[in-house]
Every structure is written in structure tokens, then in C-alpha cells.
Design a protein that fits this description.
Number of helices: 10
Number of strands: 6
Shape: globular
Distance between the termini: 22 Å
Bound molecules: iron/sulfur cluster
Oligomer: single chain
Length: about 280
Amino acid sequence: MALEVPVSLTPSKIATFKDCGLAFRFSAIDKLPEPPSVPATRGTLVHAALERLFGLPAEERTVEAAITCLDQAVLAMADDPEYVGLGLSDEQAATFRAEAAVLVRRYFELEDPSTIRPIGLELKLEVEVDLPSGSNVTLRGIIDRLELDADGSLVVTDYKSGKPPGPRQEQQRLGGVHFYAFLCEQLFGERPSRVQLLYLGGGHPQSIAINRTEQSTRGLQRRVAAIWTAIERACEQESFKPQVTALCDWCAFKAHCPAFGGDPDAARLELVGAA
Ligand code: SF4
């Protein structure tokens, strides 16, 4: 019996499918719970602090104000299941906050926030597109920051709390922001002129930016269509294979993965029993 095809795609789902078909199935089709992790939750906190910072008038966006925003975000996160689920001790919570503060301070090494003209923060976008195969799919994404550059053109910015990629992975990592730019183009009728990633982790913060063209839009459409066709075929054939790589060490589903002695059917049954 064929599996039900998911109703939407996001950049993270596309990345998961490309990295490992089985992890995609666990997440997007079986909807197995993913336990929170310190790096992901720390990233959420840093995003929240920067969102607050850009809610301030331009001249007030200082490092000190950013740290105050971080402290406000820490308070707001105290009851969040993602944070509570980490089960941090007081000492671990202090380290968690201090590491987030390092990332927030590093942001200022990449740009002067008083020069940025944001028009959207944590912007949720959704658009339904028709694919050449005759299928249609809903594309969804949350843009960290949409802004206007000096010429009044749209720019899509995404913060990353991890370390920057090597030169060979740069283009691949830009896939998510190209996806967001495509959503903007479909919804606002204007192609963002530039997309950029701001990496705050690792030894040195780094920004990776690229200008967008008509060719970028066509390339994104082709990639989405190809991935959606592959997902539909995998659902039809119930064939989502594990792909063992170094990423398995960070996989939330490793305990259920047959490549590591897990039992996916037991995990699915457990989820049905808990519902
Ligand atoms: S542990 Fe590795 S192979 Fe298994 S589902 Fe996760 S990413 Fe895929």
C-alpha cells in the first residue's frame, strides 16, 4: 500500500530528503517526535534575540541592546517545551545563555544593524505551485529577515548558529535562501536581488551572499519539481532507504533506524498507541 504523500515542502524537509530518505519518512510522513537538542534550541534563542533587536529603532541597535534582547528572549523561552525538554541544570542553563551571548556578539562582526532596513522578521510565507508533472505542492518557509537594500531591492537574510561550510558546500547551503526568495517572488511579484547567510558559529563569523537572477528562479523550480517527483515515487513504492553518513550522529531518529539496530515499525506503533 502506497504511503500518503506529504502536503507541503520546506527547505529543511528538502535537505532531510536529500541527506537521508528514511529520516525524511520518519519526520514528514510518520511524524515521529524529535527530541530537542541544545544546538537547535540555542539557535532558536539567538534568532529570537536578533528578532527583538530589529524591532528597535535603528539607532538603538547596539551590542548592549542585543544582550538585553537576549535576556528577554531567555525569559520568554523559560516555559517553552523545546527549552524545558532539554532538562538543563542551573549551571548548564548559564552556559547555554553564555554561549548564545557569544553568537549574538559575533553577529556585530558581520554587519552594522543600524544600517539594515528590515520589512519583515520571522516572516511566514506559503505558496501553492503547479509542477510540470501535473502535481501541485504547497511550499512553506519562515524568512529570518527580509529587508530593502540601498537601491530599494529585496534581500533575504538567514541566520545560522552553526559554523560556516567549506567552499565546496557553500552553494548547497544557499538552497534554503533561494527557496525563500522564490516564495517572495511568487507572493510579492518581485525577485529579491540578493540572498545571504550569516554564520555566527565556528571560530570566525562569516557571511555568504549571492545575487539572484532569472536563472536562479528556473533552477529552483527544476530542483523542487525533481525532489517532489522523487518523494511521490518513494511514497508510491514505500521505499525510503537509510543513508548512513557522518550526519547519523546528529539524527534524532537514530534509535529507530534499522541501520543501527532500531525497529521503525515499533516506533510507529508506539506513536499510534500514544495518540
Ligand atoms: S540514523 Fe542515519 S541512516 Fe538512520 S535515519 Fe538517521 S540519518 Fe538516516
